[in-house]
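Hi! If you just cloned this repository, the fastest way to understand the data is to look at a raw example. We've pasted two of them here, unedited. The first protein comes first, obviously.
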Amino acid sequence: MKLTIFIVLILFLSCSKNSPLVSPNDCQWLAGEAKRQLDGCIIKAHDGTLLYTPDGKGHYAALWTRDFGYMVENAGHLLPAENIKNAILYLLNGQREDGCIPDRVQADGLAVYSAGPVDRPLGDPPTDNSQFMVKLVADYVRKTDDLDFFRDVAPKLVAAMDYTPRSADGLVYIDPQNPHSPYGFTDTIAKTGELLFSSLLYWQASRDLIDLF
């Protein structure tokens, strides 16, 4: 897991739960380190949008949907709301006509839908990006109460959820004849059939949409 994501997850798990094992000084250090890492992620896209790369150094010249989702969910209080909104729109601008959410959008504006290099994709798009996009918008709205923003992007979110492949039982599903990665952090692992984690993400994103609507 990339260092920045690890730091913000530790911050959330250790300090937001008032863990007796973590002192206030530890939480203060973690918050400062998470902020330093997040600031180190920032690069400017071709249109001026500030992108948060996953590595804390700005080497990954793209904004990943799920990585940014983890940042906003666990350390959104350390990010300016306007930066979050603009980055969400940058990702949504790359949504395909069939509803597919990009795995990432590069700084030059190219939307990439599958894990792996642009010229050597690792199979079909992962089955988690739609859910992470819904979670991103939900977390932004919780932070800002900006329901007008949700109203503007709601059709795109519904199209993204409808794109997500599901079985007759409603679980997120990969055709056994076409194995590929379901979750971007396991991008070299091909799976098939009904998927636990992507289905849990779908359930959570559905709950978020219910609350937003």
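Ok, and the second one:
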Amino acid sequence: MPRSAIRKVAPIILLAFVVSSCATMKQTYGDNPKAMLGGLLGAGLGAGIAAAAGASPAMIVGAALMGGALGGVVGHKLDDRDKQMAAQAATQAFEQNAAGQASVWKNAQTGNSGSITPTRTYQQNGQYCRQYQQTINIGGEPQSSYGTACRQADGTWAIQPA
């Protein structure tokens, strides 16, 4: 299947997965919005990475499923302070850090920690964008992800869909 066709089909497959899995996620995580959001973001990231790598549609679906499961677990285990600290580290990294320079955070109450490292800066459609690598340690288990954030007109950074 040509790469352009994969890029058109992947969002449809992902949307079908998300819609069909919402009830299951709700039951599994007990109305936990952190778990649901983590699952959705993980599924999108997994599918996006697979599609960008030129994977087959079956591999894209598999990556979405794996990313969704991993993202749900991570979202379920992070408390509000963890998320706040991770967001502050991300803002600092996107605004101030050179490529390769990490911003780190650690919540002494939960023991969770993480880092976010910009890997590339570029302009796209008049916006500054930064590719990054993020690692979150929950209970000593590191979970890594990659993505792109672009500065919005109001100065905030928005994670871009894969």
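That's it. A detail worth noticing about the second one: The beta strands are 103-106, 113-124, 127-138, 141-151, 157-159.
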